[in-house]
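Consider the tokenized backbone below.
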């Protein structure tokens, strides 16, 4: 029976490419009956990556237990971010770079997690440790995941290890980091082509904080005015989605990838707590200035967790 490998819901570039790279690692390790799949369609940035390296997008699944009894997780571990029936299958391995929460297994498993910029950084290390082959195409996919998650190493999540490994990936892939990286990041910022739901949910994750269900979405742009022009519609969409899905609070982080700043928008009963997490206040336009904030994982979730659970 085929083992399915997948990243989190609303997959970004690192989630999809790390599933592909971990599948290739498994095949070279002798575990050939594996398949990289996805828990959602590729976003525009990821489509750019797959097209550039002429790689086929993994097929999308809604549930896993109807196909297999064994899965491998990449780029996530929290069950609310995983496949809907995650508790009905055995988790054979996890490769990740996030916090560990809401996670348990009945059987022992392989677990590798490091506080680095992307899951592909960890997988690249594992390839090197085992002496496995990384093709130019695979190196390009892995580099793209790292570029995406660290905004071309501008994010505070980028570690010295990432800064060392990314040029190695790029050399194998035969790409110029700056020109390819910027083109890739810009490919994901065509907001005119996105619906309100695409923007608020395209890269959104759920978290439990202080007993509350918190939804945090993030969208990249090269001009925050493109978001401001649609603010009312986006807030309405967030309100409706929170009501429909039972979120206590919904925060959207709009990130200017060129200037490494963000603006926050929130709906729910705890807007004051959200603002307090960043020592800021929502202005008269219902916007929360977040200078220097680009990373949900490192700069958004930890301070919010502290305030909501304090």
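A designed sequence for it:
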């Amino acid at each position: 029976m085929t083992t399915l490998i997948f990243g989190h819901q609303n997959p970004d570039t690192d989630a999809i490419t790390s599933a592909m790279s971990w599948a290739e690692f498994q095949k070279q390790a002798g575990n050939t009956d594996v398949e990289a799949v996805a828990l959602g369609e590729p976003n525009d940035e990821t489509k750019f990556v797959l097209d550039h390296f002429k790689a086929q997008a993994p097929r999308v699944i809604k549930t896993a237990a109807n196909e297999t009894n064994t899965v491998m997780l990449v780029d996530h571990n929290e069950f609310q971010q995983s496949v809907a029936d995650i508790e009905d299958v055995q988790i054979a391995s996890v490769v990740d770079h996030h916090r560990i929460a809401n996670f348990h297994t009945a059987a022992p498993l392989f677990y590798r997690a490091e506080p680095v910029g992307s899951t592909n950084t960890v997988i690249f290390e594992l390839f090197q440790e085992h002496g496995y082959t990384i093709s130019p195409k695979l190196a390009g996919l892995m580099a793209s995941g790292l570029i995406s998650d660290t905004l071309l190493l501008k994010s505070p999540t980028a570690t010295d290890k990432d800064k060392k490994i990314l040029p190695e990936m790029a050399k194998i892939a035969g790409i110029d980091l700056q020109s390819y990286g910027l083109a890739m990041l810009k490919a994901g910022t065509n907001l005119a082509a996105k619906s309100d739901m695409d923007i608020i949910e395209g890269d959104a994750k759920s978290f439990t904080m202080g007993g509350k269900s918190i939804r945090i979405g993030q969208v990249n742009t090269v001009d925050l005015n493109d978001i401001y022009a649609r603010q009312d519609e986006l807030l309405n969409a967030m309100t409706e989605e929170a009501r429909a899905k039972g979120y206590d609070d919904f925060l959207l982080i709009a990130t200017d990838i060129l200037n490494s700043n963000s603006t926050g928008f929130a709906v729910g009963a705890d807007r004051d707590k959200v603002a307090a997490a960043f020592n800021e206040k929502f202005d008269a336009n219902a916007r929360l200035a977040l200078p220097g904030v680009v990373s949900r994982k490192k700069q958004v979730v930890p301070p919010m967790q502290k305030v909501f659970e304090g």
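The mean pLDDT is 96.
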